[in-house]
UniProtKB/TrEMBL annotation:
Family stated for the protein in its record: Belongs to the acyl coenzyme A hydrolase family.
Top-level taxon in the UniProt lineage: Bacteria
Residues making up the signal peptide according to the UniProt record: none
Record-given protein name: Acyl-CoA thioesterase
Molecular function as annotated in GO: long-chain fatty acyl-CoA hydrolase activity
Organism: Paenibacillus chitinolyticus
Pfam families membership: 4HBT (PF03061)
Residue span(s) of domain HotDog ACOT-type: 7-119
GO biological process, one term: fatty acid catabolic process
InterPro entries for the chain: Cytosol_ACT, HOTDOG_ACOT, HotDog_dom_sf, Thioestr_dom
GO CC terms, sorted: cytosol
Keywords: Hydrolase
Length: 170
């Protein structure tokens, strides 16, 4: 399978923050931003593997600065690393005050996607080749994040064995 450059998976989304997008603190709803994150990450994953890509996990979403109605929000995503059938996608969220022009990294996120064939079976995905300093840093640190994901996933499976499936009202 042929490798692809990270830049071939890069996607951008820019949106204005409108009043229905904010909570009672007058900042963007976290769930709205998380929806944007999953959406753009899925496009980057699909651009790498060119099959259906599904979210295996949202590994982290770190909200660093509030996003206000006077801001635009820009999301940049790209595949940072691949396993045999999985892909790590990084999403950087930049907020820009549309009056002052000040920009900040408002959030960062890592997600894992898996490519599926027509029978919903995981398929091998191409490797990625980083080029920029940012891409190389994310690539070099990805295996450590993958190990953490593996441990966390096993702990989640074990924990799930203790959870009830019965509804509280039953």
């Amino acid at each position: 399978m042929e490798s692809k450059f990270v830049k071939e998976t890069r996607c951008m989304k820019v949106a204005r923050v409108f009043p229905p997008d904010v909570n009672n603190h007058n900042t963007m709803f976290g769930g709205k931003l998380m929806s944007y994150i999953d959406d753009i990450a899925s496009i980057s994953a699909s651009k790498l593997c060119r099959v259906t890509a599904v979210t295996a996990s949202t590994d982290s979403v770190d909200f660093l600065y509030p996003i206000r109605p006077s801001d635009s929000v820009s999301l940049e995503s790209f595949v940072t690393w691949t396993g045999r059938t999985s892909m790590e996608v990084f999403v950087k969220v930049i907020t820009e005050d549309l009056v002052t022009g000040e920009r900040k990294i408002a959030a960062t996120s890592f997600l894992t996607f898996v490519g599926l064939d027509e029978n919903n079976k995981a398929v091998p995905v191409p490797r990625v080749i980083p080029e920029t300093e940012e891409e190389n840093k994310l690539y070099e640190t990805a295996e450590h994040r993958a190990e953490i994901r593996k441990v966390r996933r096993e702990a989640s499976k074990t924990f799930a064995d203790f959870l009830l499936t019965k509804y509280p009202w039953e």
